[in-house]
Amino acid sequence: MAVVEGAITYANLMVLLSLGLTLTYITTGVPNFAQGSFAVVGAYFALMLFRLAGIHPYYAIPLAFIIGGIVGIVTYACILKPLIKKNASVEMLMIATLAWDLILFGVVGAFAETLGSITKKTETQFIFTNLDFDVFGLSGRLVISSLLIVLTLLGLYMLLYKTKFGIALRASMENPSLAEAMGVNVENTRLFSWFLSGALAGMAGAVLPFMQVIVPATGGFIIVSIFAASIVGGLQHIAGALIGGYIVGISESLVTYGLSSIFGTGVLVYSKVVSLVMMIFTLLFAPGGITGTKLWEKLTKLWD
After folding, report:
1. How do beta strands 138-139 and 134-135 pair?
2. Chain-centroid distance, C-alpha 120
3. How many C-beta atoms lie closer than 10 Å to residue 252's C-beta?
4. Would you give the DSSP letter of residue 264?
5. How many domains does the chain have?
6. Lowest mean pLDDT segment, chosen from 15-19, 54-58, 165-169, 291-295
7. The domain that contains 237 carries what CATH number?
8. CB of 56 closer than 8 Å to CB of 179
9. Which domain holds residue 4?
10. Rounded to an integer, what distance in angstroms lies between the CA atom of residue 210 and that of residue 86?
């Protein structure tokens, strides 16, 4: 039961992270390699609040949401927007996010060292599992992460289908040139998508230490699974992030657990291989992901 709970919790976090990655890819066409580090910023922010103010990491989630959103805005406004204005290619934008990822890695590392000098503890690596609690026999991390998924999906539905800004956001996703011609401020929708992307990552980051040890380089490891989730589900559709997040998150956890029971715990180190294999097979046989297949097209027509 604990393995299944852990798999679902990890998948919930993958959904939050891949939603952000897919959202910014649709609106700006940029594959963001710093998405994992956005989550690490949220994790260390939750650690700081716990160490210095005694705030439980679960209570820090709303503030991690805001901090992550600010990081997302800085990423777009200070790095990507100036490059897009200079007609930078997708490759240049991608390299820029890689460079930003390394900068965030350095900033988080320096922050951890500074926090450690204040608390007199080693803060470069930490975990929150000892702070978790049960809710009606279920782990707190499962309940909280599932609640975050429900609130996020409900919020996205209300935003995209029940508000004028959401309609403008959807229009800029589907056809930015036409949306701009009809008076939609595409720049505002892009800025908001980066805020939301960073915010979702920051929120996931506050829960991630309940799953695994966090170090400044954690973003570089989890970005593999985030990209795999978005690509398996389909980078051109928000629903793809939801589907891919659960497929990759649950598969990575359960397959790795199954292999470790056969070959030993040393297999756990190579858990990302599962995500990489799924991503390669998707690119080979269904480059558009699940939401890019004809079956998905038929299903959506039936739904409509």
Report:
1. antiparallel
2. 31
3. 25
4. -
5. 1
6. 165-169
7. 1.10.3470
8. no
9. 1-301
10. 42
